[in-house]
Prior knowledge:
Blueprint (H helix, E strand, L loop, with lengths): L1 E9 L4 H9 L4 E6 L6 E7 L2 H10 L7 E9 L3
Antiparallel strand pairs: 1-3, 1-4, 2-3
Amino acid sequence: MAKAYVLINSEIGGEAEVVKQLKDMKEVVEVSVVYGVYDVIVKLEAETMEILKELITSKVRHLNKVRSTMTMIAGAD
């Protein structure tokens, strides 16, 4: 199982919409609004690293109200 944490900067006031969209994705394990440099953090899991990368690049980064992301691929448990 491939895992990643994605830190998201959203448009001002767009955090709730980003969280709602993320919760509709089956690969989302956990999502939270955070305060500081980033606005939202999401934990993703997928069967393979290729699926995970595709999910991040073609879905998460293109969600409405997402301005930028920083991805951290998690190692094996």
